[in-house]
Amino acid sequence: MDLVIEGLSKRYPNGVQALRDVWLTIRPGMFGLLGPNGAGKSTLMRTIATLQEPDSGSIRLGALDVLRQKGEVRRLLGYLPQDFGVYPKVTAWEMLDHFARLKGISSGKQRREVVDALLRQTNLHQVSGKPLGSFSGGMRQRFGIAQALLGNPRLIIVDEPTAGLDPEERVRFHNLLSAIGEEVIVILSTHIVSDVSDLCREMAVINQGQVLLGGDPLQAVEGLKGKIWRKFVTRAELADHSARFPVISSRLFSGRTLIHVYADAAPDASFEPASPELDDVYFAAIHGKIGGAAPPPVLAGVA
Amino acid sequence: MKALAIAGFELVRRIRMLSTYVYFATFLAAGAFFTIAAGGGLAGANVSFGSSKVFINAPYALNQTITALGYLGVLVTAAMMGRAVQQDFEHETFHFFFTSPVSPRQYLAGRFLGTAVVLTAVFSSIAVGCFFGIHFPTVDQALVGPGRVAAYLHPYAVSVIPNLLATGAIFFALGALGRRMMPVYVSAVLMLVGYLIAGSLMKDLDNKWLVALMDPWGNRAQHLTTEYWPIADRNTRLVPLEGYFLWNRVLWLGVGAAAMGLVFARFRFAQPSVSARKATAPEAAPPAAPAAPARRVEANASGWAYLVMLPRLSWLAFRETVKNVYFAVIALAGMLFMFVSARALGSLFGTNTYPVAYQVVELTTGTFALFMIIVATFSSGELVWRERDARMDQIHDALPIPTWLPLSMKLLALLGAEALLTALILVSSLLIQSFKGYFHFELGLQLHFLFTVFFPDIALACVLAVAVQVLVNQKYVGHFIVVLYWLATLFAPQLGFEDRLYQYGQSPQVTYSDMNGYGPFLAGLRWFNLYWALAALAVAITCHLFWVRGVDASWRARLTGARGRFTPRSRLWMGAAAAGFVAAGAVIFYNSHLLNPFRTESDEQEARARYEKRYRSHLDDPQPKILDVKVAVDLYPTERRADLRGTYRLKNETSQDVSAVLLNVPWDVTIRELALDRPHALESVKEDGLHTAKLQSPLKPGEEAALRFDLGFGERGFRQRGEMTAVAGNGTFLNSDLLPHLGYQKSRELVEDKERRKFGLAPRERMLDRDDPRGLQRNVLNGEADFVGFEATVSTVPDQIALAPGYLQREWQQGGRRYFEYKMDGPILDFFSFLSARYQVKRDTWNDVAIEVYSHPGHQYNVDRMVEAVKASLAHYARAYGPYQHRQVRILEFPRYATFAQSFPNTIPFSESIGFIAKVDPNDPEDVDYPFFVTAHEVAHQWWAHQVIGGDVQGAEMLAETLSEYSALMVMKEKYGAQRMRKFLKYELHNYLTGRAFERKKEVPLSRVEGQPYIRYNKGGMVMYALADLIGEDQVNAALRAFLERNKLKGPPYPNSTELLADLRKVTPPDLQYVIDDWFERITLYENRAIKAGYRKREDGKFEVTLKVMAKKVQADELGAEKEQPLQDVIEIGALDDQDQPIALERRRFDKSGESELTLVTDRAPARAGIDPMNKLVDRNVDDNTVRAEAL
Fold it and tell me: What CA–CA distance (Å, rounded) separates B561 from B552?
């Protein structure tokens, strides 16, 4: 079952064009949606999760029309939002049990099994009797994914899940996600490039409401071979270089400023060739060096 | 079923919350408390359901308690129902629910159902509390009637649960669709406004349907349905679901259903729409970071710097509080209520007074204070929680600001908001005055009152509200606690907690009089202001200590924080506040408890019970009677004291020896001399105010003696309540209560059965039987004199005029004081008064009678009207009854501390507030000229009381009050015409019916009246008017003349109502004799009702009106249980035009009760028609005598 998004657009009342004619086809497996803050990721996520209406366009999940058949979609949906709260005095177990019942698991025995299993899977079994208000950030995220996994969803949407987690929690979280079955569509929306490079076999880069580029991350990186150049510069030189060269990113590396430039050939002798990473794909796309404003109807280069 | 699952989860969640138990316990306690208090089980508490004859577990009483506490529950309903859906937005858990395969309808239904069940369970605690209260050991079992389960359940079925569902649906919908709690609060306020406006409209009898429907809780509608129910009904009947009440329920359940319909239709599982402010626009790539700034900025973190910042920060917080929709809505709702209430400013009988400054400001502050309290309650929560609600608290708490800064800032902002509202009150007052065409604003007075008398109480309330929020640290529970506190202070005096020293924020009431300004009230007020201000300071310092800063809000963390903040400087402030508090408290205690003993309501009752227990055995002891009174009264207005010196000439008019004379002098009067002119020993019991003069040799029958007295009366310091106002800076009004009285004073006994039982006294009859010869030996006023000679010299300050009954013989100045000597030229009743003020005098004459009106300068609005009334009355009564016995009539204004007019011999003191500032609109036929009426009534007393007075038996007051009321009605009829009397009679009937519903012991027929005002004034007036209408005014007056002639100025045996009735029977035709029996000797009510009326035009241009009416007569017993009587009566039928003026009236004899069809011929087309259209007969229902006439 694929998720097919066609011509989706959304404009907020204050004039912001959050989605601009988005076309995407997402197949089962981990799909990464990469883009900066304000790119339209959350709007897209919420629209797919039946929480928001677009101005135009359509979304199909298999044979279901997501926009018009919300009830049916919700039966197959697991959603972990970017910002959520909890009822402070309710325990994790009770809350999961309640959601399980709402998701349609009516047999008490089955529910108990499912909730137990999920709590173990997310490593929350020990604290299942504690009130949610006492959970740390990482624990809350794990609770969030646990409820998203209830009821064997076929479509899981995870919005910025690792922001605010420490490295170990991040690893744990990644393990959780990757253990999800192969038949399930998991859309991971994030601005942390390494999440996508670690987990996803397909991705799309989105900015200012438009899909700039999509496909297999490895292939995208391959496509940049020989086009990325690096140089260390001082703080004073930075402004000058940004004006003269197509700088796509600058960061600090061991205390020195390192810039990456996108060009078919070395801009000048002071530049070294760099081995491209997914970061470079991301920055290059964001800066309009690769990808296009009007994406083709079908994704190219899918394995 | 998923909806049930959701409901169940919500139920379980709420059961785990502490707040649910707090609510349950509170309502249970309240129900128990009120029931126990009403049952006399709490010493000192005085709660009743209007009459102590209504059982505390009667259907009516239970209904009152349960529904009243249910109204308090609106806060809980709003909090729970509003949050039922809104909490998912507040907790940000909506994502989970909205993406689950539950339909929005199941979700809504589940939440509503779950919350409704919890609320029902919580409110059920009221009935449980009542039940528990009934069985509490200290409750007086005589007040407990047979218990009925239905009586407990019925109020839930018709009131509590429908209210919960209807108002709950509205709150639920607002919370779900608005996604914020503020709209819920505001809707609760608006409902409250509807309820209050309905209340203020209730005074006008023409608005009943509007009143019944406006109030969402059905309280006013219930009241209208039961207002005339006598005791018997209240003890047995459940409030029926019919008429006003039924339609109110239908309307509001409909509104609730509509709200639910709306929310079901419009609610979507969707992301809350991003508001314009919140949507983030993607940023363009930021430019490269600029070079670091060249110079470093110094941050100044000293205490002074923050103090300087405080005004600006407070201003910002103030703007936040004030500049939002909800504040504006609450303010507007309050202003609306103010303006609606102002319509009926000071009205009596539906006629208003001039909107003088003090009256308007009392009205506006009285009505708006509630809204200011609402603002304080909710805004304090919002202010204290602002950073936490915005999730900015961690950033905020980590700033280097001192902890006192946010506290002060929020407090100042709240005070600023309240000051703004106070200014709004001022503007409203001025607008009200202007709209009524009155421009004497007295701005200085209004500002002074608003900002120095009214505002301090509000400011104290604000400090308390903030403190509760800080200490409780839970916003919604905080609201509830603050509201509980207000209610507690409201009910505290009734529950026996009368001392204001321990009630935060309470200060003595201030009554402003145009005559006497603030009088003695400001002293106490100022001390209390200081006292509570110091307490508020201590409270504020405590808030500072326990302010929640950082993420740990546990008490351990707060205690640690408090210890840290309790610096030496802090200790100093706290110590100073505490010390000042104690000092001010000591001053108040000294003044209100030691200098002027503090007597609660209970203490007063105890004193009276003690008097009876000790001295009742002396009731029939022979005592001399007073023949002559000479008294010298020295008034010291500025020092608030008076001296009274005088002599009584006494004579033993009994046939037995008098061996001891009982002398009663009020216990708080200083006695410098009290002695007989014969050898005697004086035994004094000061606390009872009783002094027994034991004569060495007894006073023989016919012997005379003299009593000399020298008394001092005055006040020092201030009191908490019951401030002495008799001697006032301007407007002194003393009466003969201060002079010694002889013999056992029956008037000092406790009257109410419930109170008597409390002190172990058996219930007693209020008065002796109508024909009891013992009673006829004394007059009903007091037993110590018949008619006495009177002479008085009154002195006062030079710029005031002093008055006493009598003709002015001489006036002179001496020793810086002004003296007036008065003397009566004939014997008068032993009842006098002394007044002194700076008066403006209007003089006029009628024949050879001097008419004088002494009024306060500026209050001349109705003086001419009063003079006219005196002239009209003198003329009418002289013609009807006989000559006036004096050569002067004087009307004297006194301050509004009392609101009556009284008739002394040729002297009529008249309160400032009931006649002098009345505004009678000459162009409005509906405006009743009550200054005229009251004047006529008081002048009539010069005949009916001062020429003839009844014996000390049942029915004696009929001779004075009923006849005066009747006389005044006839004078009104003469001046305004019979057509205009309808509205007046309607008010008389209304007052009678409501009065009997609150009867405290038993109702009696008119000729046996025992002091009940609703009988002797209202029923009496109506009945006599109807009698005169039926048999002719001249016949009635002839009877009254005969009665008067026979008994004029005669001593014992005094006349009684039996004698008057005999005279009336002589002038009544045989076929109408039943009227005397029914109306005077029995309690008779008609149930007359118009069913249909139609008319058609005849060929001769006249109209034939066909009426279908119902006529029925019942007789009631003393508690109101009724039995139908056969009908053989003459009743008037008639038609009215569209101004409610009669166009045809005819008397018909109805010889069977039930429905009849009649026809009537009129000259004009009728608008309404029916039976007894002028409301002349005492009827069970005031409004149903006429119906719209339809053209056939």
Answer: 10
Cα B344 to its chain centre, rounded Å, is 15
Set of chain B residues whose Cβ sits within 8 Å of the Cβ of A12: 274, 279
For B758, what's the count of Cα atoms within 13 Å in the CB-facing half-sphere? 26
- Which of the pair, B290 or B727, is modelled with greater confidence? B727
- Residue A1: CB atoms within 10 A of its CB come to 15
CB contact under 8 A, B13 and A90: yes
B634 and B836 Cβ atoms separated by less than 8 Å? no
CB within 8 Å: B282 and A208: yes
Of B5, B6, B99, the CB nearest to A51: B99
Candidates B16, B100, B273; nearest CB to A103: B100
Does the distance separating the beta carbons of B101 and A102 come in below 8 Å? yes
CB contact (8 A) between residue B6 and residue A102: yes
Q: Using a CB–CB cutoff of 8 Å, tell me whether B401 touches chain A.
A: no
Cβ contact, residue pair B270, A75, below 8 Å: no
pLDDT of residue B350: 61
| Cα A29 to Cα A22, B343, B603, B660, distances in angstroms | 20, 74, 86, 115
Query: What pLDDT does residue B278 have?
Result: 42
* Interface subset of B 237-296, CB within 8 angstroms of A: 269-271, 273-274, 276-277, 279-283, 288
Radius of gyration of chain B from its Cα atoms, rounded to whole angstroms = 34
Question: CA B1191: distance to chain centroid?
Answer: 45
CA atoms in the 13 A half-sphere facing the CB of B1156: 17
Taking residues B196-213, report their average pLDDT.
77
For residue B1042, give both structure tokens: 């005969």
Neighbours of B228 (CB within 10 A): 21
Of A38, A46, A89, the CB nearest to B271: A46
Min CA distance, A303 vs chain B (Å)? Answer: 32
Percent of chain B with pLDDT over 70: 95
Tokens of B849: 């009678």
Q: Is A254 left (phi over 0), alpha (psi -120 to 50) or beta?
A: left
CB-CB under 8 Å, A84 with B96: yes
Cα(B361)–Cα(B436) distance, rounded to whole angstroms? 14
Would the CB atoms of B13 and A87 count as touching at under 8 Å? yes
Whether residue B551 is predicted with pLDDT greater than 80 in this model: the reply is no
DSSP assigned state of B951: B
| B289 → chain A, closest CA residue | A239
How far does B277 lie from chain A, in Å, by closest CA? 8
Q: Long-range pairs for B724-727 at CB < 8 Å and ≥24 separation?
A: B724/B520, B724/B640, B725/B516, B725/B519, B725/B520, B725/B895, B725/B897, B726/B642, B727/B635, B727/B636, B727/B637, B727/B640, B727/B641, B727/B642
Q: CA nearest A249: which of A210, A291, A222, A278?
A: A278
Give the H or E element holding residue B209.
Answer: helix B208-214
Q: What is the ipTM of this complex?
A: 0.73
- Chain B residues lying within 8 Å of A53, measured CB to CB: 270
User: Alpha-carbon distance B93 to B1136, whole Å?
Assistant: 67
Q: Report the pLDDT averaged over residues B410-415.
A: 95
**Pairwise CA distance, residues A75 & A80, whole Å:** 15
What is d(CA B1178, CA B1162) in angstroms, rounded to the nearest whole number? 26
Three-class SS state of B842: strand
CA B904 to chain centre: 28
- Whether A74 sits inside 8 A of B280 (CB atoms) is no
Please tell me which residue of chain A has the smallest CA distance to B283: A38
pTM score, whole prediction = 0.80
Q: How many CA atoms lie within 13 A of B481 on its CB side?
A: 19
Cis omega (within 30 of 0) for bond into B287: no
Cβ–Cβ below 8 Å for A51 and B100: no
